[in-house]
Sequence to fold (821 residues):
Amino acid sequence: MIQLSPGADSSSSPSIDEALQSIRRRVARRDEIRAIEHVPARAARHAEGTVDLDERILAHLEKSGVWPLWSHQAEAVQHVLDGRHVVVASSTASGKTYCYNLPVLDAVLRGDNAYALYLFPTKALAQDQMRTLGRLIADLDIKAEAGIYDGDTEPVMRQRLRKNGRIVLTNPDMLHAAILPHHGGWAGLFSNLKYVVVDEMHTLRGIFGSHVGNVMRRLRRICRHYGSDPVFIGASATIANPGEHASRLLGVDVEVVDQDGAPRGKKTYVLWNPPIFTRDDGTSFRKGAPSVAVRLLPELVRRGIKTICFGRARNTVELILRYIRERARDRKSHQDLLPRIEAYRGGYLPSERRAIESRLFGGDLDGVVATSALELGIDIGGLDACLIAGWPGSVSSFLQQAGRAGRRNDSSLVFFIAGQEPVDQFFMRHPDVLFERSPEHAIIEWSNPYIMVRHLVCAAYELPIEEKDETLFGENLLPMVRMLAEDSRLKETAGKFYYVDNGYPAQDVKLRTASDENFTIFEMGPEKIVGELDYVAGMLSLYEQAVYIHRTETHLVERMDYVNKIVHIRRKETGYYTQALCQKQVTVRDEWEHGDVNGGRLSLGEVDVVTHITGFKKVRFHTLENIGYGKLDLPPLELDTVAMYLDVADDVVRTTDAYGPDFLRSGLHGLARLFRQMLSIQAFCDPGDLDTFIDGQRVYVYDLYPGGIGFSEVGYEKFQTVLEASLEAAVDCDCAAGCPSCVLPANTRVETYMEPAILEYPYPKEAARFLLHALLGMGAYEPDLSGVQIREVVAPPVPEPELDPRTERKVDKVIRGMKDR
Fold:
């Protein structure tokens, strides 16, 4: 174990320290705890002097005990009062709310007839911030209409806000689909809009952020039409590029406030690496992060330590809670924990999420297992500990999740439990890198044509597009709207482009996903809607005979209507869950760049990716045994994106022949897995933002975003650096032949030659090292195959993809035409 910083100091909470010592004695196995980092408490840095706020606000702050302001709060408020756009980037619970509430209420108190628009990424956060704002308005005796305008708002309240709302809280989706298209009904707001607040700006990245960047430009365009020019106030967690990100998102230059003056309680980080076990057949595997969380969370809750556990995916969250409840039922001392631990994730109904939030805030819950849906700044009461089960994808997310514990400046405890992925194991081997590493850059591509052209249609619906709008949308504006005019979506008259198509375009553009539809999940029996999933996630998990887990209960999907996006499920105890099996096709559409590298040729370009969902497998709970397969016939998923791709040189391919027919294929799969994981560190992205595909002697690494978002370009530019990190990850892994912590997909087994069995990936580690040596120009590498049996690969019974009926008819027509000739 590595002790990265001095031990506990006298300011530590005894319960936290005692809990850690007990866990090290009673729960942790030998060598599981790889490092402990103590981050000391930090005193507040208060602002010197005053800020130009109304005297009534200053008196209230002093009476409430929050005066003087912390240094970053005062700096941000003064920037806003001076009319400058600003972004505040500081830690969780650092009082960013004051940075926008104070100048907004100051303008209202001064009688400026100023209006404000608040944008939050989630409804829950808007509800939470409305409570805070409402208390401030009441304490200051302000007579101004303020309220939330979202999908849950009653019609009467919607009408009141449209007519009289001075401070309107909403989300980017409602602004895009319900407010901007009907701006005439909001003339009072847009004519007098002084401030626009964009909270949790660090979450506005990727597809969502790229959409929101276009919505912000449409908002500024409408404001110009009504004669207003609002000041933008952004609030963000700590990221590497807050100023650049805010400027790209909003289209304006901003002042950056990133010197955090808030106090902080002592925080202890524990890096926990699950042990490697040997099966009866001699094969080795590493326990998954959820298996540790299942042991740790009840132990902490039993000691009275309020704890949040973050899981990487919806199924992970459901399985952790399911296994905790199963263990608690078998132990009398733990049965009282059953009602005190709950799950929280996207896909639950709003009423379910609000009830869980209320129980957390009210102290009725002592533990919650959540996806990143609880990563944002919703006030859920005082939490003492945080479990992060698997690398959350970025340093920024890691810090944000860790920041949910100790929000009231008390001492707190954070466990990072490593998964089997190479990036998790990288931080277990190099824990110092985790704590020295800067948070990532937030990346958006608002000008991505796949996204921007949709918003131009929405903008034309709102107001005719003119040449002057290039100052908002850039130099590609006119060529794009001319193409839309040629396609009869717009009509050009006297230099203006009008919307002439039928329908209401904003309703067809969803901001959160690349696709524009969600599946509604309907439970049969109770006859009620229990949730929803975006189109891609639904296609991969809500097919007929799939197991859908909701609130730890298993349900079978009985009917999937992928045309109308409705899925019917029925509760049934299955004893297993399901995973989709896919086959992909990647085709290069346009090669941008290429160059020779050691052992091959490297290229960058646009590609088309077609994913066929051909079947599914059933996986038994706990043991992870495959207990059956099923066949599926679903429409393919299509993606136009950007990829870097490597063609291994023919001479390197020929040298692999000496080690058997599967040596090259096995090595390419190992190389692709390592490269994707190590690239995520270099590109400051989540490994889930990338995917790979092997085609013969070519390896594709591509962005999982329509049009690409820049991650593959990083792989192309830093190819050598990523290769070196990949080789280090393979060499440093303790396994003999290859495992999910280096070159194999999760839950893959590698058999030693002592135990004859079917191999999915023969000698993958040595094969990957062989290729990495060739690509790095390190000379010949002699693989050690002594501990691995060379056997033929027998693939699981996955049905071959079949053409959808429309494509089949087209092919049949072509074939008949060839026969006629």
In short: Residues 206-226 form the longest helix (21 residues). Residues 5-14, 747-759, 789-804, 806-821 have pLDDT under 50 and may be disordered. DSSP finds 26 helices and 30 strands in the chain.
